[in-house]
Amino acid sequence: MIQKTKKLLLNPWFQLVLSVLFVTTSEVFLKRGAVEAPRLPDEVNWTGVSGLASPDVWHAESCSSSRVSSAGFMSCASFR
Question: Where are the alpha helices (DSSP H) in the chain?
Answer without folding.
Answer: 2-9, 12-36, 42-45, 55-65, 73-77
